[in-house]
Amino acid sequence: MSDTADTRTGAVMAAIRRKMTSRALLPGDKLPSIRRFAETMGVSPSTVVEAYDRLAADGVIRARPGSGFYVSGSLPPLAVAQVGPRLDRAIDPFWVSRQSLEAGPDMLKPGCGWLPADWMPQAAIRRALRRLPHADDSTLTDYASPQGSPALRALLARQCAQDGLPVGPDQVLLTGSGTQALDLIGRFLLRPGDVALVDDPCYFNFQALLRAHQIRIVSVPMTSDGPDPVLFAQALADHRPRVYLTNSALHNPTGATLSPQTAHRVLTLAAAHDVVIVEDDIFRDYEPTPSPRLTVLDGLERVIRVGSFSKTLSASFRCGSIVARRDWIEALTDLQIATNFGGPSPLATDLIATALSDGGHRKHLDGLIRRLSRARRAALDRLDSLGVQPWLAPRGGFYLWCRLPDGRDAAALARAALRDSVIFAPGNVFSVAQTAGGFMRFNAAHMTDPRVYEVLARLLRAPPETLTPAD
Amino acid sequence: MSDTADTRTGAVMAAIRRKMTSRALLPGDKLPSIRRFAETMGVSPSTVVEAYDRLAADGVIRARPGSGFYVSGSLPPLAVAQVGPRLDRAIDPFWVSRQSLEAGPDMLKPGCGWLPADWMPQAAIRRALRRLPHADDSTLTDYASPQGSPALRALLARQCAQDGLPVGPDQVLLTGSGTQALDLIGRFLLRPGDVALVDDPCYFNFQALLRAHQIRIVSVPMTSDGPDPVLFAQALADHRPRVYLTNSALHNPTGATLSPQTAHRVLTLAAAHDVVIVEDDIFRDYEPTPSPRLTVLDGLERVIRVGSFSKTLSASFRCGSIVARRDWIEALTDLQIATNFGGPSPLATDLIATALSDGGHRKHLDGLIRRLSRARRAALDRLDSLGVQPWLAPRGGFYLWCRLPDGRDAAALARAALRDSVIFAPGNVFSVAQTAGGFMRFNAAHMTDPRVYEVLARLLRAPPETLTPAD
């Protein structure tokens, strides 16, 4: 049912829908009373009645006689209830994803996790696209082979060999995305109630994903060299996790790099406790020099590598990868057929293979690395003048993990910034143990607009009690 | 580790790997003894020793001292163990998928579930591809918005309206495929141990998918008008399923069409027992005239529609859809972000929207329907001469659900046909209750090569005991 008929009624309906999208209202929540919302919206109560009635007719809300209106849906106990905590909308790991993905072009996204479109290798992609109309019929309309494009798998196998890990293309599975790779692995390895270990802080979607699997999550504090080895040993002994999930190359969000000593200790401990390690290699192209890889030290006995092309080539193409021992790849391939009838589009893998072989690709990456280096330096300078300090200065990548001055609360600041059309990523969305309330992750590639610093400066100066939640 | 060094050793290794791919060997299975496999392969035992040692070094197999070699991997109790039964490789629902998806161009696939590439709208797709290099930067590299392309969602909303179901684009979620849509819904609605109801027979991947969710599956026999209403009522009362999963338009594999009376009874019973219905609309474009839709009668109170572009436009593009009540769409959208960071590629949805608006599309569909009609008639004639009879003559679509003569066993025949490079789909892969041992599903679009009938004829004449499993 469309919202066209009456503009005021439509505006009220749209406001309620926005509250649901921003998760200010979740299924089962009570809507504002008719009188109160009429005041808030500056319309007559009858307009709100009309709007609520139409939302009820759509099934979006339900009237409970004598009680008011409630958002529809008894949330099943699965997935969604665990995708993110309901405690506080701004620290919901989900909130940052949804806001960033839905943001219109007028919104600034220093909290998002990807590069602006114009930083990506657009020219190489357009060149690759021009070849597509000449692809054979099968590439245009057939399902992919179960493990995916042999050419792209061979490329990834060569990449592993260059890292010091000789694998065959049959140990590579192409997936619909890096996230989907993690999801498949989760379904393969984990049962509800199992324990997973992550870093504190860690990429927020690890949390949302593990919650969707009803996994109990414990965390180990990061140091500048990787997870704290002593606390890592303790976490393994105390909680007996089935899996440890981490980044290689450049840690998200801290930018830290695993040291050889920590890598070796982590692997030794994992072997002693029969823990599987999943190493998300998504930022490999951004490190200036190679750093230790758990997959390489381990030789794929108990470590699985996940990769993606979303951060260096295109997030639109939807292609990720898993490198693992052959028998696990076989099982994961079956699981991907059962749940998605295959992996990435043959068109997409064709495009990726072509773009990666493009003569300009290496040059583009080198230019990107330099550009990011300048962007990080410029952002750190501006942030420093506001009293915002990095936890460490990263060797590469987009993220700056910074502490706000004067014990300011990042979540409150992020909520307030929404009203200024700026989306920040407050620290606690990255922290299962909620230890990062005073931190923020900034994406240096989205810190070039002066408005980011204007809004940040103003909110850092505002008395904390004035930072009320956005409506 | 590559298989290049010694050709004979490589051949032995490849043969073992093929057994694993075809699931003749699963994790934990014992490999043939060295002596026996040397005889089978016509090589010296030392060659087999070398091959087994190298496979062990790859981690693919493990030696158990005093016992022999075993395929590596303790299969976790999840997913894979339930993706398909181990009883008999040919009735494993998975076997048909894997064989068909991996089949080289020399293999004939009368058992597969899609059209040959040259039947698909190649010209319109190439025209749409030519426009892509001119798309904006964002389409080429950005993540999709959470629900996906507004234009494509509006198109699907209009399609629903034409069916008699007025919905807004906000009630549509674009997914990575029709299968992934079903998978998301499964994760949203179902917990391990829940019961799901399907038709007998039903699309085999429904089984594989439900097993991956550890769902108990019960079935209701199909009639030519839809599920048997009396048995449907009984199944609901006896088993209390959470969900009923079925096709609309043209049933897979029988080709049957839901009658208005059965539709109404099914919906009434579902409401009385609080069962959610998932209606897979994937063959909508193939019906000559519209037939009842449970979503339309229900108005999205408890029915969810799943769609896909894989059968009429392209299986390469990877795009499916869910139409449902708004609060469920919201939750499914969140779940898709957590598990895949979004739905289909913006490039893919752009292509689809363009190709669907192509002036030639309606004409192509009409031509396709006529071509399929001729193909079904021709196939039925040839099959009739072999004593193979259809259960019913379908109004449209590709499938012919047929009984073999003389009580022949379809699974044995399908296994033997592999040796002749023909992939058939034996009836019991479609039947949870295993009632279809004498049936086969033929895809009329893959029945034009005379070799299909030669192989079928020969195997139907061969004494049953001679149909030994392919090695």
TrEMBL record, chains A, B:
Coiled coil: none
Domain HTH gntR-type per the UniProt entry, residue ranges: 6-74
Keyword Transferase annotated: yes
PROSITE patterns assigned to the protein according to its UniProt record, in alphabetical order: HTH_GNTR
Keywords per UniProt: Aminotransferase, DNA-binding, Pyridoxal phosphate, Transcription, Transcription regulation, Transferase
Alphabetical list of CDD domains matching this protein: AAT_like, WHTH_GntR
Keyword Transferase: yes
InterPro entries, A to Z: Aminotransferase_I/II_large, HTH_trans_reg/aminotransferase, PyrdxlP-dep_Trfase, PyrdxlP-dep_Trfase_major, PyrdxlP-dep_Trfase_small, Tscrpt_reg_HTH_GntR, WH-like_DNA-bd_sf, WH_DNA-bd_sf
Gene Ontology molecular function: any one: transaminase activity
PANTHER family: HTH-TYPE TRANSCRIPTIONAL REGULATORY PROTEIN GABR, TRANSCRIPTIONAL REGULATORY PROTEIN
Homology family: In the C-terminal section; belongs to the class-I pyridoxal-phosphate-dependent aminotransferase family.
The protein's name: PLP-dependent aminotransferase family protein
